[in-house]
Amino acid sequence: MSRKISAILALAVLATLALSSCRSAKEVVYLQDIKTQDLQKITNYQDIKIKPGDMLSIFVSHKEPQLSALFNPQGQNSAPSEAGQKIAGYTVDLNGDIDFPIIGRIKVAGLTRSELSTMIKNRLNDDGLLKDAVVTVTYRNFNVSVLGEVNNPGKFTVESDRVSLFDALALAGDLTIYGRRDSVMVLRESNGERSVMFANLMSGDMLNSPAFYLQQNDVVYVKPNRIKAQQSGINQNNNVSVWLGAVSLLTTILMLIFK
């Protein structure tokens, strides 16, 4: 009987050691301190502003298509499709300007899409070029990159101006079990400066972080946790040998007990 008890204890010890490497729920659950009845006012969202290097699609429409065609690249007279957007493109130069047909150079940096649309519409109207036009402005290069411990790292094109850190992580297939949820890095370039911010996905405070709502060309990096870092020096073959060694040790213990 004592031998059986010793064997059970040995198995329990090995099982405990194996389970100790597993992450507890407390280390992987998002927004742990959020209460369902909480109502929070959104104060950290800012409209996305156009900046140098952005690529824009600007489409002018009018009840008389032959008139609006003058303001669309290559006489385009229909709203840009996915392929059409590659034609109807304007790159914002280092001075924050674009060169628009007939109107000429326009300062666009610092404006939102809506503000630019209104400005072009007013210019067309005030200059007597085209009255009652509809101007549609869209981003061609609103991208975010997600790297590190996620299931599907990559560079993603975002259709909406309002994209959160959770949205970007969802595009990347969420974090792996080895990703650090308490320190997700967001790199951002704006006005010739680069900033580095960190967000703790496990805390509700991150909802008010300036890193929560992303901007065009932000880079999100998920660092590996301690367990993954420790495994980095062990290749797959070594992992197999470690487990084989553990099985061999367990077999030896059982043989000694029941001998």
Task: Describe the overall structure.
The protein contains seven helices and ten strands. The chain has three domains: 50 residues; 105 residues, Outer membrane lipoprotein wza domain like (Outer membrane lipoprotein wza fold like); 85 residues, wza like fold, CATH 3.30.1950. Strands 7-6-10-8-9 form a five-stranded mixed sheet. 29% of the residues lie in helices and 23% in strands. With 259 residues, the chain is of the alpha+beta class.
Keywords:
five-stranded mixed sheet; Outer membrane lipoprotein wza fold like; elongated; single chain; alpha+beta; 259 residues; 3 domains; 10 strands; three-stranded antiparallel sheet; wza like fold
Tally of separate helices: 7
User: Which percent range describes the beta-strand content?
Assistant: 15-25%
Q: Briefly, what CATH class of the largest domain?
A: Alpha Beta
- Could you report the average pLDDT, rounded to the nearest whole number? 82
- Major sheet: size, sense and barrel closure? 5 strands, mixed
* H and E order: HEHHEEEHEEEHEEEHH
